[in-house]
Amino acid sequence: QVQLVESGGGLVQAGGSLRLSCAASGTIFSFNRMGWYRQAPGKQRELVATIASGGFTNYADSVKGRFTISRGNAKNTLYLLMNSLKPEDTTVYYCHGCAGTYNYWGQGTQVTVSS
Questions:
Q1: Residue 1: what pLDDT?
Q2: Nearest Cα to 69, choosing from 58, 53, 84, 61?
Q3: Residue 45: how many CB atoms within 10 A of its CB?
C-alpha cells in the first residue's frame, strides 16, 4: 500500500516563508510526476505546482515567482518552498504522485497565513 505523508504545514505571518515536505512509503517505483494541490472550502482541488521526473515544472499563475517545487535526493520525496505567503494561500495542501494509471494522494497539511 502506497502512502504519501505531508509535513511542514503550520501558521505563518503574511510575507513569511514555509516549506512543505512529502515522503512516500511502500513504493517499489518512482513516480513519473509529483505535485502539490490545494483545496479551499467550497472550491474544487486546484493545481499549485507539479514536477516531472525530468525536472520540468508547472505552476499556477497565483504562485509563480513565489513558490518553488522540487524533488529530493531520496526516492519519491517532494518539497514546496513557499515564499511571500499571502492570506489567500491559506488552505489545505495535498501531495500527489502518479505512475502510469495509478494516482496517490496524501491526507493533506494545513497552511494558515495570518494577516
A1: 83
A2: 58
A3: 15
